[in-house]
Write a structure and sequence with these properties.
This protein is mostly helical and 500 residues long. It is built from 27 helices and no strands.
């Protein structure tokens, strides 16, 4: 019989406890899991995750991971270099440049950081910074071709800057804009180029485009004196002189040596004062003094089309007050060259044309005005101008007799007597055939004129624009008119003698 080993109750409890302890030991993690990772290890993992996000073009995610890595290990040049590359992909060249330079401070032999400095400087339009970085890379690695493209681009940019400055100095602003567009393709983040382009666009009258650029730069840097200056320039060129002055003064607060703002503030104040003085003189009836003021004001800035068009219009009004109608037309012509939509100038020129008896030109102007603004008043003016044109195509009997349109009956008779004696065929009997024929025509016209203007009914119809010469003058005999006039005026035996 086999011996049976019996376990006492106390032994059974110890065995049970041991069994439970063994189970508990299996659930405890190993030693590697218990020891916490150091900052360097975590930072390296963050960097690797950042690289994955960068390769997937998730640059914002990559940026956060690189920043986490830098927070854990702020002395790692590589992490700053990686974040610089990420900033470049996000077109944040200033932040990228700061990171790349910080990486160089941590590791002066970090070639990739110099490459990124060169690329950022080029994008920001910093030619010297680009050239210095290119030189350093060549010293670190003489066989490197990493920056060949940037080196050539920097040379091209330097040439463009020279060309831009030459055109700017000669006020060839359209050319400046053209060359700046080429420069911005190389240095798209250069605020200096963008603001210079905006300034030239303002000079060219493209203020909306200029303002968009200025406002865009101000969003990036609200303390940019150049951006505030350009915005003031846009206000100035759209005749917002008061607001323009405020912007120039703000730019000078930020940069007391901003010479462009000083110049424009002075010009702005001068124009504002002269405009107000000219308007005051005009309203008070001192037209010739107002004319001088407006003329002087026009010399201040030939590029300000908006203000100059108003000054020219005001001077045209002055010219109409001093009976200088041709000068008024010339001023209106210049206004419309600056702004073809300037309705007031168009209507004023039409009125001047009408007063100068250039009726076809008046009709053309009123027709153009009607296309700009269809109002009952312009329609009426056009009808009147067409009527005047129709009247002008008839014989001007007042002009033939050399009298005013308000001449009375006695003045009409005296004028006929004088003209009839001057053009009577007998007076020119010894002249050439050509002269005799010309004088006969004039003699007949004088008789026609008197026949119409001496008859109250016919005169009224003629003045109203009706064509009556064809209806009632077909059988007109100027000689009979002449005989009747002198018989009636001097009796049956009346006679006259020509003085040769």
């Amino acid at each position: 019989m086999e011996n049976v080993i019996e376990i006492s109750d106390s032994e059974r409890e110890e065995t049970s406890s041991a069994s439970e302890m063994e189970v508990d030991l299996q659930e405890v993690p190993d030693a590697e899991q218990i020891v916490p990772k150091d900052a360097a290890t975590i930072a390296e993992e963050k960097k690797k995750l950042g690289n994955d996000q960068y390769k997937a073009q998730n640059y914002q995610n990559a940026l956060k991971l690189y920043s986490d890595a830098i927070s854990l290990c702020p002395d790692s040049a590589a992490y700053y270099g990686n974040r610089a590359a990420c900033y470049m992909m996000l077109l944040n060249y200033n932040s990228a440049l700061n990171d790349a330079r910080h990486a160089i401070r941590l590791d002066p032999n970090f070639e990739k950081a110099y490459v990124r400095v060169a690329k950022c400087c080029l994008a920001l339009g910093d030619i010297i910074g680009t050239e210095q970085a290119v030189k350093t890379v060549a010293e670190l690695e003489p066989q490197s071709t990493a920056l060949n493209t940037e080196q050539q681009a920097a040379q091209k940019l330097r040439q463009l800057e020279t060309t831009i400055q030459t055109n700017y100095d000669s006020q060839a602003y359209r050319n400046v804009v053209f060359y700046l567009d080429s420069a911005l393709k190389i240095a798209p983040a250069c605020l200096r180029y963008r603001l210079l382009k905006a300034e030239c666009l303002a000079y060219l009258g493209r203020c909306d485009e200029a303002l968009d650029i200025a406002v865009g730069v101000m969003k990036l840097d609200s303390t940019s004196a150049d951006a505030i200056y350009v915005r003031g320039l846009c206000l100035y060129y759209t005749d917002n002189l008061d607001k323009g002055i405020l912007h120039f003064e703000r730019a000078l607060q930020l940069d007391p040596d901003h010479h462009k703002s000083k110049k424009m503030r002075s010009k702005c104040k001068q124009l504002k004062e002269m405009k107000e003085n000219g308007n005051m003189l005009f309203k008070s009836g001192r037209y010739r003094e107002a004319h001088v003021i407006y003329t002087d004001a026009l010399k201040i800035d030939e590029h300000n089309k908006d203000i100059n068009s108003k000054l020219l219009y005001n001077r045209a009004l002055v010219n109409t007050r001093i009976s200088a109608l041709r000068e008024a037309v010339a001023d209106c012509n210049r206004v419309l060259e600056l702004n073809a939509q300037y309705l007031k100038a168009l209507l004023l020129r039409a009125r001047c044309h009408n007063d100068l008896e250039k009726f076809e030109e008046a009709v053309a102007d009123y027709e153009t005005a009607l296309q700009l603004e269809k109002t009952p008043e312009i329609k009426r003016l056009l009808r009147d101008a067409k009527f005047a044109l129709k009247k002008s195509k008839r014989k001007d009997y007042y002009k033939i007799l050399g009298i005013a349109r308000n001449a009375n009956e006695d003045e009409i008779k005296k004028a006929y007597r004088k003209k009839a004696l001057v053009h009577h065929p007998d007076r020119h009997a010894g002249s050439s055939l050509e002269v005799r024929q010309d004088e006969e025509i004039k003699f007949k016209e004088v008789g026609e004129a008197y026949a119409i203007l001496s008859d109250a009914r016919k005169k009224a119809r003629y003045d109203s624009g009706q064509d009556i010469e064809e209806q009632e003058q077909a059988d007109f005999d100027p000689n009979q008119m002449f005989r009747s006039f002198f018989q009636f005026s001097g009796g049956r035996n009346a006679s006259f003698n020509f003085e040769y």
